[in-house]
Amino acid sequence: MKGTNQSLTGLRGLLALSVIIYHIFGSAILEGYLPEVAKESPLYWINYAGPISVNLFFVISGLLITQSLLNKRTLGQFALNRIWRIYPVFITIHIIIFAVGPFIGYKWMDGIGFVDYITNFITNALLLPGIIPLPIAQIVAWSLSYELFFYIIAGLAWFVYRNERLSVVSKWVLYALVIGLSIVIVVYHSNFLFFAVGVLLFICQNKLRNRSKPNKIFYFNGLICFILMYVAYHIFTVPIAVALLLSFLLFIPIIKEYGLLSRVLRTGFMIYLGRISYSLYMWHTMVMFALKIFVPKLSSMIGSSSLSFAMYAVLSLFLSIVVSHLSYQFIEQWLTGQLKLRIKKKDIPAETGVIMKTS
């Protein structure tokens, strides 16, 4: 894309915010702040916010990762870029959970043995739980497992496509491997198909962007598609086919940065949330876990479930944004920048040495 697509940045903010609201709503019911909600209630639709938002995150990844791959000269550059993007925040939370978890009885860590502890530490660090049914420490990190496997598939496809040294037979064998692995994943995890929507959008984006400005009657298209996705999840038992089509249509006005939805997404607050969206997505459950310990103590003093829920919801949202802002500034920006700089300095002697002639 030429420059930064502000609508896409804002969409990431909206999706991260939707996931937080989804988790606040779900945990409030589990903690007894809210009663069970009937499917006929409008509030029930909040249950779709999580799945829809994560699936749309996959579409964004499919679009941006395809672009990133084609802009990188080597597979190593692409892999390093992904590591810098994902691991600083992820590994910080990973270490905190595995350092504190066994002592506070966090989830399956209560009474965990040494061998299981080390095994789960490694499998979680490698982002395996999610695609592979293994115990997961960070409940939102299952989506990173999907991302990892998409990177592997996309990277392998890029390697085969760009490598002129491979024979035709070798290329077809490797392409078959890519397709086979993709099919196996889709059979068990159908929402993996949303990455394909992103790839398709990348292929079509220039044609979509270069078309003449849409007629004003299409001004509400993005918002309508967004609402229809919720309708599809509410009506259909297996909504994925409709959701795939709607997600493609939803991204057309976002790519063109046109329409009411795009206009909302380009507001300052949404762009800000978009910038910190990765930290927001990763940290909010940690914040909520701490509040689940703190809020009940206040609730017993307040004696009102409605007031307790309001306090839990507001604190969850506010503190998640504060923590994510700090995470973005000090982990995603400063720490990652320092690590990149140190590694770059180590590479300087090799780069400034004798240039060897290569054939």
Please give a quick description of this structure.
This protein is 75% helix and 0% strand.
Number of strands: 0
Most strands sheet: none
What is the succession of H and E elements? HHHHHHHHHHHHH
Helical residues, percent: over 70%
Residue stretches low in confidence (pLDDT < 50, at least 5 long) are 350-359
Derived structural class: mainly alpha
Number of helices: 13
Please give a structural write-up:
There is one protein chain. The two termini are 35 Å apart. Helix 1 packs across helix 13 (305-352), helix 3 packs antiparallel against helix 5 and helix 5 packs antiparallel against helix 6. The protein has one domain (6-352). It is globular. The model is unreliable at 350-359 (pLDDT under 50). With 359 residues, it is mainly alpha-helical. It contains 13 helices and no strands. It has helices at 6-30, 49-71, 75-104, 114-125, 142-162, 168-188, 193-210, 221-235, 240-256, 260-265, 268-275, 277-302, 305-352.
State the main characteristics:
359 residues, mainly alpha, 75% helix, globular, disordered C terminus
